[in-house]
Amino acid sequence: MTKHYPLLRFYTKENCHLCDVALEIVKRAAKKLKFTLETVDITQSDDLMMKYGIEIPVIEIDGNLEFKNKVTEKELLRSIRKYSAEYVT
Questions:
Q1: 18, CA 20 to 30 Å: which among 2, 25, 34, 68?
Q2: Is the dihedral of CA 33, 38, 41, 42 positive or negative?
Q3: Would 24 be classed as within a structural domain?
Protein backbone atom coordinates (compact mmCIF):
# COMPACT_ATOMS: atom_id res chain seq x y z
CA MET A 1 0.00 0.00 0.00
CA THR A 2 1.36 3.41 -0.99
CA LYS A 3 0.34 6.48 0.98
CA HIS A 4 0.19 9.89 -0.66
CA TYR A 5 1.29 12.90 1.36
CA PRO A 6 -0.69 15.93 0.19
CA LEU A 7 0.98 19.11 -1.02
CA LEU A 8 -0.14 22.05 1.07
CA ARG A 9 0.62 25.33 -0.68
CA PHE A 10 0.51 28.32 1.69
CA TYR A 11 0.20 31.74 0.03
CA THR A 12 1.48 34.55 2.23
CA LYS A 13 3.46 37.79 2.39
CA GLU A 14 5.49 39.70 4.96
CA ASN A 15 3.75 41.76 7.64
CA CYS A 16 0.53 39.77 7.44
CA HIS A 17 -0.79 39.02 10.92
CA LEU A 18 -3.44 36.57 9.70
CA CYS A 19 -0.71 34.75 7.76
CA ASP A 20 1.42 34.43 10.89
CA VAL A 21 -1.52 33.00 12.82
CA ALA A 22 -2.39 30.57 10.02
CA LEU A 23 1.22 29.45 9.65
CA GLU A 24 1.32 28.51 13.34
CA ILE A 25 -1.79 26.39 12.76
CA VAL A 26 -0.11 24.75 9.75
CA LYS A 27 2.97 24.00 11.88
CA ARG A 28 0.82 22.41 14.59
CA ALA A 29 -0.93 20.31 11.94
CA ALA A 30 2.47 19.18 10.64
CA LYS A 31 3.17 17.63 14.04
CA LYS A 32 0.02 15.51 13.70
CA LEU A 33 -0.18 14.62 10.00
CA LYS A 34 2.29 14.22 7.15
CA PHE A 35 2.13 16.59 4.22
CA THR A 36 4.51 18.55 2.06
CA LEU A 37 4.51 22.29 2.75
CA GLU A 38 5.30 24.84 0.07
CA THR A 39 5.24 28.49 1.11
CA VAL A 40 4.61 31.03 -1.66
CA ASP A 41 5.29 34.76 -1.21
CA ILE A 42 2.62 36.42 -3.34
CA THR A 43 4.66 39.63 -3.63
CA GLN A 44 7.00 37.79 -6.02
CA SER A 45 4.28 37.56 -8.68
CA ASP A 46 1.98 40.25 -10.05
CA ASP A 47 -0.51 37.53 -10.99
CA LEU A 48 -0.60 36.17 -7.44
CA MET A 49 -0.91 39.69 -6.01
CA MET A 50 -3.93 40.28 -8.25
CA LYS A 51 -5.43 36.90 -7.44
CA TYR A 52 -4.85 36.72 -3.67
CA GLY A 53 -3.77 40.21 -2.57
CA ILE A 54 -6.55 40.84 -0.05
CA GLU A 55 -7.47 37.21 0.63
CA ILE A 56 -4.27 35.89 2.19
CA PRO A 57 -3.51 33.66 3.81
CA VAL A 58 -4.69 31.22 1.19
CA ILE A 59 -4.21 27.47 1.50
CA GLU A 60 -4.41 25.01 -1.37
CA ILE A 61 -4.14 21.28 -0.88
CA ASP A 62 -3.11 19.26 -3.91
CA GLY A 63 -3.97 22.24 -6.11
CA ASN A 64 -7.46 22.73 -4.67
CA LEU A 65 -8.36 25.95 -2.89
CA GLU A 66 -9.34 25.04 0.67
CA PHE A 67 -9.04 28.18 2.82
CA LYS A 68 -8.92 31.97 2.47
CA ASN A 69 -8.26 34.55 5.19
CA LYS A 70 -8.48 32.18 8.14
CA VAL A 71 -8.38 28.54 9.09
CA THR A 72 -8.83 26.53 12.25
CA GLU A 73 -6.64 23.61 13.16
CA LYS A 74 -9.65 21.28 13.18
CA GLU A 75 -10.70 22.33 9.65
CA LEU A 76 -7.15 22.06 8.34
CA LEU A 77 -6.61 18.59 9.79
CA ARG A 78 -9.92 17.43 8.29
CA SER A 79 -8.92 18.70 4.84
CA ILE A 80 -5.46 17.16 4.98
CA ARG A 81 -6.95 13.81 6.03
CA LYS A 82 -9.41 13.99 3.13
CA TYR A 83 -6.61 14.39 0.60
CA SER A 84 -4.47 11.74 2.29
CA ALA A 85 -7.32 9.24 2.18
CA GLU A 86 -8.02 9.86 -1.51
CA TYR A 87 -4.64 8.47 -2.49
CA VAL A 88 -4.23 5.39 -0.33
CA THR A 89 -3.84 2.42 -2.65
A1: 34
A2: negative
A3: yes
